[in-house]
Amino acid sequence: MDAFKQQLEQLSAKNQYRSIPDLVHQGRYITRENRKMLNMSSNDYLGLASNENLRQSFLQQYGGNFPSFTSSSSRLLTGNFPIYTDLEELVAQRFQRESALLFNSGYHANIGILPALTTTKSLILADKLVHASMIDGIRLSQCEFFRYRHNDYEHLKNLLEKNVGKFDRTFIVTESVFSMDGDVADLKQLVQLKNNFPILIFMWMRPMQ
């Protein structure tokens, strides 16, 4: 136990010790230590999820026809509802694609898709600054992977030239807008590489303003 205590003290000395804050949530605001602040560190920075008027309006409009607030089961078992299929068909139509598959979150997509598409004989080439959840998905895939320098497509091209013929499938893993620093991927260069090599691109898409 002394070793754990020492580790915690070392983290504290480096300002790396983390603790769960005591917060009071009020719409888009939070109160911490008697200070009321606009919560810009949340995905719900507009406060829409906690807007009581929106919630009541939603229940009045859809409450009678809306399924349970819990699926109670996996979609593969008994947790599928027609509204899920309707939404996936709408998304596919809007993006002009054959079909769409919804996940609970970006994290679930990133840890689910790559292990499903790769084999132990596959190769993943990932941008150095991809999101941590993508790295989790890469590790779960249990295939060979290398990381190329951030947005360095010459480095990526060199890795492709050296490795692409050695594996059954090769994936480039990247983001459209990088969450780490806000950089934007060069889609034209990625498409050019896709046209020149037998590869697949797995990209986490984020809307750009």
TrEMBL record:
Q: Report domain Aminotransferase class I/classII large positions.
A: 36-199
GO molecular-function terms, A-Z: 8-amino-7-oxononanoate synthase activity; pyridoxal phosphate binding
Alphabetized, the UniProt keywords read: Acyltransferase, Pyridoxal phosphate, Transferase
> What InterPro entries does the record point to?
Aminotransferase_I/II_large, AON_synthase_class-II, PyrdxlP-dep_Trfase, PyrdxlP-dep_Trfase_major, PyrdxlP-dep_Trfase_small
Under Enzyme Commission nomenclature, its number is 2.3.1.47
Q: List the source organism.
A: Haemophilus influenzae (strain NTHi 3655)
Q: Which GO terms describe its biological process?
A: biotin biosynthetic process
Pfam families xrefs: Aminotran_1_2 (PF00155)
Cofactor (UniProt): pyridoxal 5'-phosphate
Task: Give the protein's recorded name.
Answer: 8-amino-7-oxononanoate synthase
- Asked if Transferase is a keyword of the record, the answer is yes
According to its UniProt record, this protein's enzyme class is transferase
